[in-house]
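Chain X:
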Amino acid sequence: MPKMPRPRTLLLAGLGLAAMAGGLAFHYGISRQVRSVLGEDSARRSQLQFVDLADPPGAVDFWGSGEVEAVCATPSSLLTAGGFGVMDDGGSISKALPGLKVPVLSQWRGHPVAGLASGGLFLRRGGRWQEARSSFSPLQVRALLEGPGGELWVGARQGLFLAPWASDLLEQMDAAPVRTLALAGDGSLLAGGEQGLKRFQGRRPSLLETPDPWIDWVGVQGLDLWALTPLGLLHGSLGGTLQPVPGGQEVRAAVQAGNQVFAVASGRLLRFEPSGRAAEEALPDTPRRVFASGGVLFADARAGLYRKGPGGWALLRPRPQGFPQGSSHVNALAEWRGRVAVGLFDGGVLLGEASGEGMAWKPLSDNSLWGINALMPVEGVLYLAGLRGAARYDGRRLTPLAPGSAYALARGPGGVAVGYGHGVQLPDGRLLSAFHGLPGNQALALAAGEELVVGTPSGLGAIVDSKVSWRVTAGDGRLPNPWVTSLAQAKEGLYVGTYGGGVALRRPEPDHRPGPGSFHPFPETAGLKVNPGCLAQVDGRLYLGTDGRGLFRLSEDRTHFAPLLVALPSRRVTALLQLGSFLLVGTDEGIARFPLSLLREGS
């Protein structure tokens, strides 16, 4: 018989197996933790590449906001940026950038670096712009700061990022959104945004206590801390309690220069001493923003950019040719009495007249309407549709039409029809809505012909003889998307633009019998978001403006749409207009004017 192991031997063997299993489990657990940490670390880091951007061909004019939003003094030139792009001492240097509005500007490694409002980080080197590309989504950059070691700190809506010196990496340091950055005297970094003010000592963040978590700006001199929130200007010591500064309640923009803070409040420029005492700075114009760069103080005002020197303030750079103060988000375009009428998304109407090689812009004399959605000239009268109603302007007086938020205009045989949020007002005064058979109440698009076609977020319908003749809704499955935003008549039928489904061609019923007819989508436009008023016949061709994908054009044989690789202020196209031999493209960042000869095939 085989010899049986003794109980002590069995006990020792069992303990050995248990130790081995425990060791394996510990090793597996540690390995998993290491893999987890490495995976997280890898997910927060990305290779950083800089890709040259080529200047687009041809001469294109741009108009946006003339307000300066960022200033950067370089050894060779003073750079200013805003809704007009980026300018140096010789003029605009924005041609290659994919967006016109540049609210953030700084230096890195001796080169200008910019953040676009439409997203992305760009470096200018060797007279050319380069795009910073990584595996992170395009950053919505709000603040840039070069550290003492040559590293670049990037504050974005997606968080805080670091590009170290002499490295090809971009690392996400924190996921909280950032609006402002500053370096403290002890080497720590301050980052403020919608979720509070954080202090980074090394890689460890700590949240500082503030009366309001929304931080618009932060400044620090040594351990003396300033911050701007919706409550106003705050002051205190780093690590201490921030208190409201007397006279700082109305501050909306601030900058630190030495141990002083300069701030814009209620149309005045104020100077705050380290003690918190305020005094008004004598600027010869109404300030809008204030900047400090290269040890010099600048202020943007109505006439342009001012610089403070030993003798006081002097106008350094006149305001770029562009829109007056306020929005550059274009929502509608029309030609009226030899001028260009511009309807603003968050404003009224601007009128542009040729001035030399450019355009001079001024507001309509009566801008009581706001949030303009459509403009249409009829026999010398300009009709307007906006969020505060519809009206007609004869050059002297604005005459309101029926009340209610208005979105679309169309001229038919009987007069002007207006699309409201609660239905369609016909020229005879009748109002038709979903109650009368339309697919929805909100009339976003109108096209007048033998029938008045109405586009709504719920589908497409038509009115004949003041009655709803037919409709197509989401349940019918005929439209690529029921959210109809834009309509354009052509001899082959009606082009229907949708928000999220691209474009379809509606052909009428045989023998033009009443009915919805047939719908033929363009597959290459599937998923495109067509903005209101962004289907337009220009020089015999149909152009298409999209929300985020730029400009498209229908082929000569009318079989497909193709993108046009042209420089735009923004890829969010919001309005189209033919103006003589030019195409005007409105965007949420201003207007581009293209010679039609530049857009022809082969150009």
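Chain Y:
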Amino acid sequence: MAGRVVEIFDSTLRDGSQGEGLSFSVEDKLRIVDELDALGVAYIEAGNPGSNVKDLTFFQRLATRHLSNARIVAFGSTRRHGVSCDEDRNLASLLEADVEHVAIFGKSWDFQVTGILKITLEENLELISSSVAWLKGHGRTVFFDAEHFFDGWKENREYAIRCLRAAVDAGADTLVLCETRGGMLPDEVHEAVSEVVGLFPHVPVAIHAHNDSGCAVASSLMAVKAGAVQVQGTLLGIGERCGNADLSTIIADLELKMGIRCISGRLDSLAQTCRTVAALSNINIASSTPYIGSSAFAHKGGMHIDGVLKDPSSFEHVRPEQVGSSRRLLMSEVSGRALLMKRIERIRSGLTKDSPQVVRLIEILKSKEAEGYQYEGAENSFDVIIYKELLPCEPFFTFVHYQTIGSLPYADPDSGTSHTALVKARVRGESAIAGAEGRGPVNALDIALRSVLERFYPSLRSVHLTDYKVRVLEGSDATASRVRVLIDSTDGYDTWSTIGVSSDIIKASFLALSDSIEYKLFKDRYDTRRR
């Protein structure tokens, strides 16, 4: 396998857009094209110019765009039965898209031909051959998508192959074997692809798999082993029903596991490209997504963490930086002392795993997790505990009282503020009080908290929240359930995450905000990186 090259054909903007809840604007599509081009995929299937005005506008915008690596593909179908190629509006739109490469799909499962299209098998072959020949006659490079090929191959192999033959004889440049229903197992895909590669040795063969049985990635890799030279899919596995083959996994597997070059860009840009495309798609990348998910290189078990700290290869199959990801060691009651020692050493050196202070911190960790705290996503809240236990000093502040008041309709409709917060604290022996308006109770409380302290600690003026998440721990108590609030903060130099837990969502938010401020002040006092 090493030394082979396999092309990546990305269908995020066409097949991916058919996923539930997904809708791309023209600007979204243009930005995704830029991302995929920079990653170095060979082809970008940009959409069906005959399906809607937005896709046609998109192709018009693409005409003036310079791409470094990728070639744009317009997608459509074979001509309609009873209509000539010259009269078929869909085929005409493929020419109007003004791109060199086009992909057209045609039926290759006899059931689909007679049961869905309601035409004869011979008439379907004519649709395929005439459409391909017409597009070739207009100077286009043609990918023929044999829809439902694997189902057809299982139930009427001879006819499925005749459909491919009709496309090849008409001049098709690439045969795309579509696993449309997503129900085949990888060994079946391997067998079918091997046969097609043998029957058409001079025509490139591609695989286009769906994930309805959870096998799209595995089937795609098996197709490559069988001789396919192009893999189609979507970057994040998005698509209709259970989605398409996930190219983020396939690209990494081909490059790192099989030694097959498949992108012309840098593999270590993969994770960031996926995050950008996810943001433009308004979806979250599942934490368990191989290579690029937030948990892909996250370690929580004590034995695992101890092994990774000694040698990452003990529990990681590749280095995270190869795909642009990073390692995460999760703080929890099961993570053991190795990780705790690593965090402690950042704050104070000279302690061992058996030092009384370390033993006490482990007990605090277990106690806090029993209350509902979870530090694996908010390690900096536990850093505050470490600071207080190992570097005891006079508290930066002591909160005396806080209060939030909400109103509807908004007191000030123009500003959108709906809540007022009042905070009173003691700082360096002085009493200080501040109030603030905000867009919701947490926003008002955040502003008031910093306002009451900024006179004493000016560096807090640079701090602001970047994310706020709430999770109900147990729903049995309905609106009285305990909640876990996690917030991300930044001062423009560092970012950090903190947590608060309470049956009162405002109190949980207050605890997380308070930890955020304390972490910033401890960092200013003891972190020497910026001095």
